Amino acid sequence: MQRIIRKITSYFSSSKSHSHPATPSIPKAPKVIPRSEHGISRREIDKSALDVLYGLKRAGFEAYLVGGCVRDLLLGLEPKDFDVVTNAEPEEVKEVFKRRCQLIGRRFRLAHVRFGRTVIEVATFRGQGKEQAQRQDFFGRKGKQSGKAREVDDSGRLLRDNVYGTIDEDVWRRDFTVNALYYNIKDFSIIDYTGGLQDIKSGTLRLIGDPETRYREDPVRMVRAVRFAAKLGFNIDKSTEAPIEKLGHLLKDVSNARMFEEVLKLFHSGAGVQVFEKLRHFDLFTYLFPITEQLLHEELEGFPRMMVIEALKSTDQRISEGKSVNPAFLFSAMLWEPMLQRKQAHLDSGLVHQDAFFAAANDVIEQQIRSTAIPKRFTAQMRDIWNLQNRLSKRQGPRAQKLSEHPRFRAAYDFLGVRVAAGESELKKLFDWWTEYQEKDPVDQVAFANAVEKKPQKGRRRRQNRNFYRKRSQKKSDASGSANSSD
């Protein structure tokens, strides 16, 4: 009943509702591309996504694949995930898939349908109706009231958007034209409202609606534009890129937890170097890694710029080879030079090496999490990677085996290789030694480590007795001894 009332109010308010201005050259009438005229096959679609699409279809709802998965399939790429959009509201999706489904989100109400480890995200068509935007939204099992269905702050940022509508309204709520293509499970056709197919052919990334308004609604769209352009090799439309540098400061208002997720998407996209260059071009990198950006302007003989680029090259190569990547390694590389600078400042103030290191690591991490949150499990790994850089040189005898058994040894070894590639040629001999060590069998490793020459130790000063009472007793015994000898 509640759903019927919402549809009625949405129908009568549609003529009065405010919609985002579409690009004038883009027709509002959708273009339908039949199965015979596009290359997307169901064999390329994840089975779990098909189960969701057919499950909603059997229940009498509309169901479409939408977003990056359709775009990637058209480009001949393997989609990272599959997103489904439907006219079923979240609670109705829950009724269809029962225990498999979990409702999440307050800002954007979504349904997650689980098939083992695979999660298919299901969204409801977004609408524009003003009356529905004023209704109170409810969240949680007990249906607690959580605010208006749509809320916008003073800067134009969208705080909540749970106004539901039709596919004709939903398309204008999407961000880029290439992400606004719908794959219809009923007849396997593709529906294009915004000219996304033409933009894919021309390699153009274009925002739907007025760019400045859309960036103010969600500032993360600026870094998404950079990511898609770098990943797909597309050119950003001039009207889309024009406001980016001016509105970059809006990223400060985005939660640091969300920015952490965006950073991983940016630099673990397989095009990290290109992303880095574009972020700096649009002056967005300073809002992600402010202390690193500050040092980039003070670079000397290629540092730390080359350190960051070489780390991103290493990450891109691992992704291209299908290997795993670790967020701790990325953040270690980004913050390595700021950490060294802080460490030197602490050493100059009189701290010993180890105390200076931990103080510097804490300072840098604490400052960085104001921009991007870093979970504790990753900050602990970052400290290990940094700390092992000093310990790897102390490899004589049994120390080599202990170091190689450290959980972060491989990451620290790769990090050492990045430093060599970035220009620290004095470390190449050490890096080559560890490379050769790992190629040997356990017996040869012992002999190889024992053959390392020990560095001459500095002469130690004799430790003075610090016990005050022992000094007094020692003086008394010395005095009594001298008295007896005089007798």
How would you explain this protein's 3D organization?
By secondary structure, this protein is an alpha+beta fold. It has 24 helices and 14 strands. The chain has helices at residues 2-13, 47-58, 68-75, 90-97, 130-134, 167-170, 196-202, 211-217, 220-232, 238-241, 244-247, 256-267, 272-281, 285-288, 290-296, 305-320, 327-348, 353-368, 376-391, 399-404, 409-421, 428-439, 442-450, 468-486; strands at residues 31-33, 63-66, 83-86, 101-104, 110-115, 118-124, 136-139, 144-148, 150-152, 158-161, 181-184, 190-192, 204-205, 235-236. The strands form four sheets. The chain has an eight-stranded mixed sheet. It has a two-stranded antiparallel sheet with strand order 7-8. It has a two-stranded antiparallel sheet with strand order 9-10. Strand 9 and strand 10 form a beta hairpin. Helix 16 packs across helix 21 (409-421) and helix 17 (327-348) crosses helix 19 (376-391). The radius of gyration is 30 Å and the shape is elongated. The model is unreliable at 5-27 and 131-147 (pLDDT under 50).
